[in-house]
Amino acid sequence: MEKLPIEIVSEICSHLGPPDLLHLVRSAKNFAQYLLRPSAAGVWKAAREECALDMPPIHPDLTEQKYAFLGFGSTCQNCGSITRSAVDWYLRRRWCSACQEIVIESEYCDLNRKWNQLIEDKRQRWKHDAIIHQNWVSVHEGRARRQYRSFLACPISEYNAFLLKAQELTDKEWKVYVAEQQEKKEALTMVFGQFHPVLIFGL
Ligand SMILES: [Zn+2]
């Protein structure tokens, strides 16, 4: 299999679904080299669309390959270990239980606390609608490992991007931006809970 010419590799891949492509990436070096390069994004996109699953929309910060690993893979995105944890589509992430808290604490912020700091912001009534990826998470609180704190988490990068937009855009641009964000959020919410790749493919 390692000696197959690239034309044959390309032809084989064009007939496979995302789980099979992931399997090839893990099992054969020349398939991995072909499938993981940016120019192969079209192969993954075609496979995803061919699958005809009601998948949440792809976010601009994910490549087609990363999206396939998220939806159909079985590894933690932080440490790479095999995990049974389901994908959190609202946050578009899958972590093992050991990594979840580490990542949440370092890369996510508490939206409700942030909103309270923005109380003077004239655009505050829009703020919830302008953040797409947010969900309730629980982390251990203090030294007592049995105590948990639940909060509405959002990636710090997404929150900072929101702040920048709120400062820079004109009122007209801001309305367009919020409408676009609302549309993306609705698309994500619409399929959340209906999409279970782990169950469908038994990965
Ligand atoms: Zn992990």
Helix-and-strand structural type: mainly alpha
Query: Could you tell me the number of beta strands?
Result: 3
Shape from CA axes? globular
How much is the average pLDDT? 81
- The rounded distance between the terminal residues' Cα atoms is 24 Å
Helix run count: 11
pLDDT < 50 stretches: 194-203
CA radius of gyration is: 20 Å
Description:
- The radius of gyration is 20 Å and the shape is globular.
- 52% of the residues lie in helices and 8% in strands.
- Residues 194-203 have low confidence and may be disordered.
- It has a domain at 98-201.
- It is built from eleven helices and three strands.
- Strand 2 (135-140) and strand 3 (148-155) form a beta hairpin.
- Helix 1 (6-13) packs across helix 3 (29-35) and helix 2 crosses helix 3.
- It has a three-stranded antiparallel sheet.
- It has helices at 6-13, 18-27, 29-35, 41-51, 64-72, 97-107, 111-117, 127-130, 156-168, 171-191, 197-201; strands spanning 108-110, 135-140, 148-155.
- The two termini are 24 Å apart.
- It is mainly α and 203 residues long.
- It binds zinc ion.
- Zinc ion binds next to helix 6.
Topology:
Blueprint: H1 6-13, H2 18-27, H3 29-35, H4 41-51, H5 64-72, H6 97-107, E1 108-110, H7 111-117, H8 127-130, E2 135-140, E3 148-155, H9 156-168, H10 171-191, H11 197-201
Antiparallel strand pairs: 1-3, 2-3
Helix pairs in contact: 1-3, 2-3
The chain binds zinc ion.
